[in-house]
Amino acid sequence: MKISLLQEAKALDFENKLKAYRDEFYLNDGQIYFDGNSLGLMSKRAEMALDYLTDSWKRYAIDGWTKGAYPWFTLSEKLAELSAPLIGAKKEEVIVTGSTTSNLHQLLATFFKPTEKRNKILADNLNFPTDIYAIKSKLEQHGLDPNSHFIQVESRDGHTIEEIDVIAAMREDVSIIILPSVLYRSGQILNMQQLTQEAHERGILIGFDLCHSIGAIPHDLSKWGVDFAFWCTYKHLNGGPGSVAGLYVNERHFGTAPGLAGWFGSDKNRQFDMSHTMTQAMTAGAYQMGTPHILSAAPLFGSLEIFHEVGIDAIRKRSLELTNFLMKLVEIELDGYGFTISNPREDHRRGAHVYLEHPEAARICKALKKVNVIPDFRTPRGIRLAPVALYNTAEEVYDMVQRLKNIMEHETYKEFSNAREIVS
User: Fold this and answer.
1) pLDDT tens digits for range 254-285
2) Where, per the database record, does this protein carry N6-(pyridoxal phosphate)lysine (predicted)?
3) Is 124 a catalytic residue?
4) Which three-class secondary structure state does DSSP give residue 77?
C-alpha cells in the first residue's frame, strides 16, 4: 500500500501544471515546509523587487516618488491593481496599505455608525483575536459596553460556524458584521455570498477578514456586494514578514468619509496642495492614512506577478489536490494514533490547510520540527498543515506523513513538553 500511495504522489506531481514555480522559491534542503498559511516562503521575484525598490532609494533619493519602474507615490495603487483579481474586485476598490488590524480599525471607524436602533456588532466566537480586540475597542470608543453590544455567534462543534446561526443572529439592532472568510483554525470557508445577501436584506453592513483566503481561494466580492474586506499579505501571498496589508471597499461606498483620515487618503491631484481641508480620493485609496511603507510593500510586486501569471483558479485546483491527498494519507497511515481531522472535508467548505487535533499536539509539532518538518501548532491541541500549491509537492505530503507515523510509532514526541513555544 505504501508503494501505491507513493506512486499516487508521484503521479500527482508529474501532472501538476504549476510544478515549474517551485523553483521560484527559496526552499531549505531536506526541509518540508507546511506553514505557508502563517508565513509564505520568499520567492526570487519578491527578492528582486525588494532589491529594485531599495536601489531606487539609492539611485533617485527623493525623486523616487515619481521616477523608476515603481514610483513610490502610486505604489499602493499599482499593487492594488495586481491584487484586485484575487478577490474579484475592481482595481479602484482595493488599496494596499496598513496592517490587518489598522485596516479593520479604519473600516470600523468609517462604517460603524451606531444609532439608537442599530448599535451592535456581530461576529463569531472562533475569529482571530486581533479582530475581536479591534471590535471591542471600537465599541468602547463609542461608549458602548462590549458585554451587551457585541454579539458572537457560537460554534456548535468548536471548529466550524453554521451560516444559519449567523443569519439567525442578524437582528434588527445589528449595525455591522465582521466575519472571517476562512476560519484560521479549522480552515472552514464561510459562504460569503449567502451571508452578504442575508445581511443586506436586513439593512446590515458586512465585511470579511480575508487573511486566510486571499491567494488561496477565488473570491467575487464585487459581484457578491460585500461592503468591505481586509487582509494581510504575508501568508498565502508570500509578501514577507510584516508586509503591507490590503483593504477593499465596494464602489457604492466611495465618498464615505474615512473614519481615520490621513493625507495619503487624498485625491492624488490635490494631495500636495497642502490644504487643511481634505479632498479625499474617490476610490478605496481614500482609506489610506500615512505614507506608504515602501520597502515593506516592495516584495509584493514580485509575489503578485506570480499570481497574475498562474491565476487563482489553477492555484485552488492544485491546493485541493494536495489537501485531499493529505487527508487520505492521514486516514490510512495514521489510523489508530489518535489524530482527528477537524477541518471540513468538502472541497467547497475547506480552505488551503488541513487541521489535525491530538492531545499531544504541542510535543508532536516539536518532534516534527526535529525531523525537519515545519507545521503550525494551535493551542490547545491543533496541528495545521498547509501544503502550498506554488511550492509544495504531493511527495512531500507523503514523506511528511511517513515522518509523522515514525514519530508516533516510536513515541519520540515524548522527549518534548506538551506546551507551546512563545511563538506558535
Assistant:
1) 999 999 999 999 999 999 999 999 999 999 99
2) 235
3) no
4) helix
